[in-house]
Amino acid sequence: MVANIAIPKLGFTMVDAKLIEWKAKEGEWVEKGSGVLVIEGEKSSWEIETEGSGFLHIVVPERNKALVGEVVGLICETKEELEKAQKQAPPGARAGLTQAEEAARKETAPPAKPELVEKEAGHIRISPVARKLAEEKLIDITSIVGTGPGGRITLADVEKTIEEKRGIGVAPEEIYEGKRVAKTVPLQGMRKAIADLMYYSLTNSAQVTVLAEIDMTEMVRVREALVSQAERIGTKVTYTDLFVFVLARVLKDNPIFNASLIDGEIKFWEDINIGIAVSLGGEGLIVPVIKNADQKSITQIAQLTKELIKKAWESKLRPNDVIGGTFTFSNVGMFSISRYQTPVIVPPQSAILSAAAIKDTPVVSEGQIVIRPMATFSLTYDHRMVDGEAGERFLTRFNELLQSPYLLSL
Amino acid sequence: MLCVIYQLGLIEYRKAYRLQKELLRKRFEGQIPDVLLLLEHPPTITIGKSGRLENVLASPALLAEKGIPVFFMDRGGDVTYHGPGQLVGYPIIDLRNRGRDLHRYVRDLEEIIIKTLGSFFIRATMDGNPAGVWVQNEEIAAIGIAVKRWISMHGFALNVNTDLEPFSLINPCGFPDRRATSMSNILSQNVSMAAVIERLLAHFSEVFDAQIELDSDELIGSTIKGEQK
After folding, report:
1. How far A82 CA sits from the closest chain B CA (Å)?
2. What is the Cβ-side half-sphere exposure of residue A274, based on CA atoms within 13 angstroms?
3. What ipTM was reported for this prediction?
4. Do the Cβ atoms of A172 and B14 come within 8 Å?
5. What is the number of structural domains in chain B?
6. Which of A26, A153, A294, B14 is most enclosed, with most CB atoms within 10 A?
7. What is the pLDDT of residues A62-93, one digit of tens each?
């Protein structure tokens, strides 16, 4: 019996994954349930475990990409099956395709070895990186002067040629609809995943955003008190932790915000799993999930959040850390100038809340202008499920708890 | 399925390439139907993704002297020479309508060429593995395609009256012991390009089950003019 090792679909918009590491060698015996291949897909790394024991036959080697569902390896129960498999598809030979740019031919040609450099004088010699750029920019190889050993063309040589040609105006620049292209970057990886998700979310729901400004005087007190206890608690509590804690209670009282519209039915979720949007700088964003947030203490939420953010930055999040969210919270306070946002719901959730930084703001209280620490919140909900009135109730309850934190102990 | 044919005449390689990319984009977005570009290139050497540099036998200096540019290309296949007298065809078609079967597509292209040659009483075969069309171990047509988001580009190159001398500068499709040939070489007489095109279109229409239309300037012509800024 030969079992397939295929790329699992780990995320909603996942289409392919990169094979990072085969944990066993070609032909080696692997035990059922052991980790055999590490892949990177949908913003997290994943270890595939074998479903049975047998000899491993590698179909797609490391550092390659494979499509979801593509068979990248085989587990052969017997040596005969292993030999047969090895003959049919010698380790490393690929028949797979990626959805991004792909060249096809009738027969899978042997991959050009990256270090291959012609030894004979007179031939074109070029480094792989230079070749890639020359291909991208459609540079005539015979017009490049190679300054590497033996006249080898280096990346710098290609870049120089591009510059020179640009100067003379002979450059075959790329012109797209009358505009000159400076750079072309394919949409792939995390960027593509986010693009697809955002687009899907906005085109498949009726999103509406309401904005609120809330007095944080009480919350500031609570936080300062908790921070002063940081050593005893074991962690420094942040506003995000507090908001998540409060939100869990608000969601309990407003179940339509902890639900999903799926195939014409509204599913109200038993668990309250709050996702926290984490920005990864220019690399994109990811939303690790605090499961059962309503059953956790502030301390637990604070510890867990720190752990998850650290993992996110180190690209160590597992799929289990990012699935199962029923509501999402995004604190943009750390880096935003904006006071209000129109956050996009993470499908199939019904709402998302974002918060901007607390700012001392003049407000009117009992006929006087006073300065209060105000935070601004933006609540986007899916109007297919949630009406304006429900939105107001949500924010009212949220505000109530933020003004009178003692209510949380009830 | 409708397929619009556009004849570009003699066109520089990169110009045709950029045109293909623009047409591919438009095809993907559904702005245009399937397209077949028919054209010829000035002497040009291209190296595909699996192309090995040792298959370009001449030095860059010699090639520069002869005025033959060399480009790395994002198509499959090895090294190819293009030149006047060679009929180049770039079908830009949506393979999602054709069963998303790349291997079948390449086979269909070969079949079209083989049938076309048959109309001129030239017996050609696919000769097993390498993508291309062969007459007694000599390559008469090369095939190298690329597929982006299931839309094809690049295509085939059929030596009609091509001057075969420049082929000595390369190992055609990476085969050191194989040579190139042309229709006029086999028939020992010049062959009418127009006649070849006419036959090719007939077989193209038949194999791809396509309704052929010659383009009016509206669809493809405007794109070409746009690209020629």
Report:
1. 25
2. 30
3. 0.83
4. yes
5. 1
6. A153
7. 878 888 888 899 888 888 888 888 887 555 44
pLDDT > 90? residue A124 = no
CA dihedral (A149, A155, A161, A164) positive or negative: negative
Which regions of chain A carry the CATH code 4.10.320.10?
A: 128-180
Q: Is the pLDDT of residue B111 over 50?
A: yes
Nearest residue to B145 (alpha-carbon basis) of B20, B59, B11, B18:
B20
Domain assignment present for residue B78? The answer is: yes
Q: Say what percent of chain A tops pLDDT 70.
A: 85
Query: What's A128-180's CATH class?
Result: few secondary structures
Amino acid at position B58, single letter: A
> What are the φ/ψ torsions at residue A113 (nearest 5 degrees)?
-65, 130
| 3-state SS assignment for residue B156 | strand
Alpha helices in A144-282 (DSSP H): 155-168, 189-203, 217-228, 230-233, 239-253
Which of 1.10.10.10, 3.30.70.1350, 2.40.50.100, 3.30.160.40 would CATH assign to domain A2-88?
A: 2.40.50.100
Interatomic CA distance for residues A147 and A165, integer angstroms: 18
Q: pTM for this structure?
A: 0.50
Q: Whole-angstrom Cα distance, residue A84 to residue A385?
A: 56
In a domain, B99, yes or no: yes
Could you write out the DSSP letters of every residue in B54-123?
A: GGB-S-HHHHHHHT--EEE-SSSSSEEEE-TTEEEEEEE-BGGGGTT-HHHHHHHHHHHHHHHHHHTT--
Boundaries of domain holding B209: 2-224
> B229 in a domain, yes or no?
no
Looking up residue B81, the CATH number of its domain turns out to be: 3.30.930.10
Q: Select from B57, B64, B76 the Cβ nearest to the Cβ of A103.
A: B76
Which of A29, A7, A10, A1 minimizes the C-alpha distance to A19? A7
As a whole number of angstroms, the distance between CA A175 and CA B163 comes to 33
Check if B3 is active-site.
no
Torsion angle of alpha carbons B142, B147, B150, B155, nearest 10°? -30
- Cα separation values, B134 from A105, B57, B105, B127, Å: 16, 21, 18, 6
For residues A260 and A266, the answer to whether their CB atoms sit within 8 Å is yes
Q: Which residues of A336-373 are buried (b: 16+ CB within 10 A; e: fewer)?
A: eeebbbebbbbbbbbbbbbbbbbeebeeeeeeeeeebb
Residue B104 lies in a domain: yes
Residues of B in contact with A103 (CB under 8 A): 48-50, 74-77, 144-147
Tell me, which fold does domain A190-409 have in CATH? Chloramphenicol Acetyltransferase (3.30.559)
Nearest to B105 by CA among B156, B57, B56, B61: B156
| Residue B43: closest CA among B9, B86, B7 | B86
Cα A239 from Cα A229, distance rounded (Å): 15
Q: Which ranges of A42-139 does DSSP label H, i.e. alpha helix?
A: 79-88, 128-136
Supply A90's token pair. 């010698």
Q: Which two tokens stand for residue A297?
A: 């203490």
Query: Residue A357: how many CA atoms within 13 Å on its side-chain side?
Result: 8
Residue B218: what residue type?
E
Residue from B31, B53, B152 to probe the interface with A (highest A Cβ count within 10 Å): B53
> Pick from B72, B98, B179: which is nearest to A142 by CA?
B72
B68-110 pLDDT, tens digit per residue, is 999 998 877 788 999 999 999 999 999 888 888 777 888 899 9
Q: Tell me: the pLDDT tens digits for A319-358?
A: 889 989 999 999 988 777 888 999 999 999 999 999 999 9
Q: Which residue spans of chain A are classified as CATH 2.40.50.100? A: 2-88
